TrEMBL record:
GO terms for cellular component: plasma membrane. It is found in: Cell membrane. InterPro entries: ABC3_permease_C, MacB_PCD, Macrolide_Exporter_MacB. This is Putative ABC transporter. Keywords: Cell membrane, Membrane, Transmembrane, Transmembrane helix. Residues 21-241 form the MacB-like periplasmic core domain. Residues 292-406 form the ABC3 transporter permease C-terminal domain. It is a multi-pass membrane protein. Belongs to the ABC-4 integral membrane protein family. It comes from Croceitalea dokdonensis DOKDO 023. The chain crosses the membrane at residues 21-41, 288-313, 333-359, 379-399. It comes from the Bacteria. GO terms for molecular function: transmembrane transporter activity.
């Protein structure tokens, strides 16, 4: 491997055929370059999809009622279903379903919100403490609704960063200020923010559920049930767990509220875990396609190396015959040809690797495309691909070399 004369021969051959060697190297380097770039964007798509689904808790389930669409047990269609506190309690205590967090939303009707006698138009929602985790909200100031507020039916409110900017821009902090909600004073005790760019939740003012039901004549009515399920080891297990959870809840609610089992519109459930699975499956298919395209490109480069080695052997047939006549061993001739194939493949492969990794490192963090975030590739995977390419290049050079040593010495000497 470290025979100086052997390496001089290799460089002499390359110098004599600069264009041919350069084009071969470009085909090999471009194969690695294209593969790494494609894999990087495949990973970027997966990163982007994960970021999209982390704006709320990754395993959240949302349940809300609507109207029935078919007759059932003598009950006419078109009935509005009303969820109640009992539904939440039965699901929590009697069904034996597996969840980590659970919350409720109740939206009072016909309310008027004032601050310093100015009307502010935001949605009011009564809720429970776990909503903060389920909605993936963070606190900028103060605190969130807690269990003590629930137990004492406290008149406290939590506003959003958006409301703070739009209503309390003249104050350093809105904490301690009072909102007049339909004639009842609510003290602001916290300011929350929504993770991600979606500010829909920041249009809401949250107060304790028990207070909302008591003060605004809600009784035991609720509008939404919200759950966060435990994450499993794989996305398939998580999806299966969520589907079983949804099935149990819908079965209970349909039976409790006299809804036909096949009436899918009466009780609506949003399960983002199933949607996430579809996106992950799509990403996996795209990454497989990228691998396929990249490998085909590499194979084209390896075929190019094999063809070049065949030409090299053809051009050096007489030289090979002379070497054999002088007593050169077959393996010595094979290694002479293999060294050139390995050298060209290795230099080209690592050049493509360095250029592609450098490009991803340079532009990856600055790419801002929907569902694509920070394209990158595992260096170990890319390096392994180059090693596989070098092995393939070695094999591609071996067959022409083996063919060369099998040529009879007399025939090789007669070659022009």
């Amino acid at each position: 491997m470290f025979d100086i004369e052997r390496w001089q021969e290799i460089f002499d051959t390359i110098r004599k055929n600069k264009l041919r060697t350069f084009l071969t190297g470009v085909s090999v380097a471009s194969g690695i370059f294209i593969l790494v770039i494609l894999l990087g964007f495949g990973q970027g798509m997966q990163n982007g999809i994960e970021a999209e689904f982390k704006t709320d808790a990754a395993t959240s389930i949302w349940v809300w009622p609507r109207r029935t669409t078919m007759e059932y047990k003598g009950l006419n269609p078109g009935r509005r279903i009303q969820l109640r506190n009992k539904d939440y309690e039965v699901i929590a205590n009697d069904l034996g379903v597996d969840y980590q967090k659970a919350s409720i939303l109740y939206f009072p009707n016909n309310i008027r919100i004032l601050y310093n006698n100015d009307v502010i138009t935001y949605e009011l929602a009564g809720t429970t403490p776990d909503l903060q985790t389920i909605e993936n909200e963070y606190l900028s100031e103060g605190r969130y609704v807690n269990q003590t507020d629930m137990d004492t039916k406290a008149k406290v409110a939590v506003i959003s960063n958006k409301i703070k900017r739009e209503v309390f821009q003249d104050l350093d902090s809105p904490l301690g200020e009072y909102l007049n909600i339909s004639g009842v004073g609510f003290k602001i005790v916290g300011v929350f923010g929504e993770v991600g760019e979606d500010e829909d939740e920041e249009e809401r003012i949250f107060i304790p559920l028990t207070t909302a039901q008591l003060v605004f004549n809600g009784g035991d009515k609720i509008n939404n049930l919200n759950y966060m399920l435990p994450e499993k080891a794989t996305i398939e297990e998580t999806v299966a767990s969520s589907e079983a959870f949804v099935k149990d809840i819908k079965k209970y609610l349909h039976e409790e509220h006299g809804v036909a089992p096949e009436d899918e519109r009466a009780i609506r459930v949003w399960n983002p875990i199933e949607e996430a699975k579809r996106y992950y499956a799509l990403t996996g298919n795209i990454k497989f396609f990228f691998w396929f395209v990249g490998i085909c490109t590499i194979i084209a480069g390896v075929v190019g190396v094999s063809n070049i080695m065949m030409i090299v052997v053809k051009e050096r047939t007489r030289e090979i015959g002379i070497r054999k006549a002088l007593g050169a061993k077959p393996w010595g001739i094979i290694s002479m040809i293999l060294h050139e194939a390995i050298f060209v493949t290795a230099i080209s492969g690592f050049t493509g690797l360095i250029l592609s990794m450098g490009l991803l490192e340079l532009i990856g963090p600055n790419i801002e495309i929907d569902y694509v975030l920070n394209p990158s590739v595992n260096f170990q995977v890319a390096f392994t691909t180059v090693i596989v390419l070098i092995v393939a290049g070695t094999i591609a050079g071996f067959f022409p070399a083996w063919r060369a040593v099998r040529v009879h010495t007399i025939d090789a000497l007669r070659d022009e």
